[in-house]
């Protein structure tokens, strides 16, 4: 299983660097399959996948944002302004995720991935007609983005990048800034999933709350190697074709997840 975790981490790191996303949209469906194959308790499958995914994003985001920062593609004013709201939202989302029925969270996640894939596949970008809003609006948006990101275990890029594009940031700066924002999203979300899972019974050995540590070790190790490569490629190549392929991958994973939770 270690090789599967390594391959998954390498893929997520590369995609995270390229698109400024944490990689939860790929991690969660695949981890569900891997954890199910290891015969983890069915009632904990989704929460373990969500929590472990969020913890992995910490390392992916850190490696990715460092490379984007080297290319001067991170708007640190936006990052500093949005982070307090992000931290509040991720804690709220973690609490909601453990109190909402598993099937509902799974369906919500699948529908969210479909929406994200459609945006990428059909290049649905908002009109760029204004500048960044005031600090209050950015922080309130941070609460919303943090809640949704923690609830479905994503780094936040799928939510944050359209917001930044609408606020007249270039695509490369939106990706770089989103990569930096993914870090506090992952920190807050991981704390939430660890705390809410500490008293859960029947978790597999070597779990810290809803974070499965052996998986975290291997996926994080691979992702920190490939995330800088993806970030470097984002500043050197036309990623239009890769965006389309990524959207198709999201559609396939979301469909697989939807069949699983409905079945």
From TrEMBL:
GO CC, alphabetical: plasma membrane
Transmembrane segments: 6-33, 45-66, 78-97, 104-122, 142-165, 177-198, 210-229, 241-259
Highest rank taxon of the organism: Bacteria
Record has Lipid biosynthesis as a keyword: no
UniProt cross-references to InterPro entries, sorted A to Z: TM_pro_TauE-like
Subcellular location as annotated: Cell membrane; Membrane
Keyword Transmembrane helix in record: yes
Pfam families: TauE (PF01925)
UniProt main location, coarse: membrane
Topology of this chain in the membrane: Multi-pass membrane protein
Record's keyword terms, sorted: Cell membrane, Membrane, Transmembrane, Transmembrane helix
The family this protein is said to belong to: Belongs to the 4-toluene sulfonate uptake permease (TSUP) (TC 2.A.102) family.
Protein known as: Probable membrane transporter protein
């Amino acid at each position: 299983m270690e090789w599967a975790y390594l391959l998954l981490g390498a893929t997520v790191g590369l995609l995270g660097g390229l698109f400024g996303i944490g990689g939860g949209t790929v991690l969660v469906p695949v981890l569900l399959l891997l954890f199910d194959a290891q015969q983890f308790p069915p009632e904990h499958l989704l929460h373990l996948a969500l929590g472990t995914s969020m913890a992995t994003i910490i390392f992916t985001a850190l490696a990715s944002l460092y490379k984007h920062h080297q290319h001067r593609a991170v708007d640190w004013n936006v990052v500093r302004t949005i982070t307090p709201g992000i931290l509040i939202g991720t804690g709220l989302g973690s609490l909601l995720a453990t109190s909402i029925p598993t099937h509902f969270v799974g369906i919500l996640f699948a529908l969210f991935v479909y929406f994200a894939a459609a945006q990428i596949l059909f290049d649905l970008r908002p009109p760029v007609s204004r500048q960044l809003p005031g600090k209050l609006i950015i922080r309130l948006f941070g609460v919303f983005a943090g809640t949704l990101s923690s609830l479905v275990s994503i780094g936040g890029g799928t939510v944050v990048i359209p917001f930044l594009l609408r606020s007249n940031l270039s695509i490369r700066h939106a990706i770089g800034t989103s990569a930096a924002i993914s870090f506090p999203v992952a920190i807050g979300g991981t704390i939430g999933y660890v705390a809410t899972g500490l008293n859960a019974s029947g978790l597999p050995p070597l779990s810290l709350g809803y974070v499965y540590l052996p998986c975290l070790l291997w996926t994080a190790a691979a992702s920190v190697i490939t995330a800088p490569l993806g970030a470097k490629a984002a500043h050197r190549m036309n990623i239009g074709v890769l965006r389309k392929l990524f959207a198709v991958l999201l559609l396939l994973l979301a469909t697989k997840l939807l069949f699983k939770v409905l079945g």
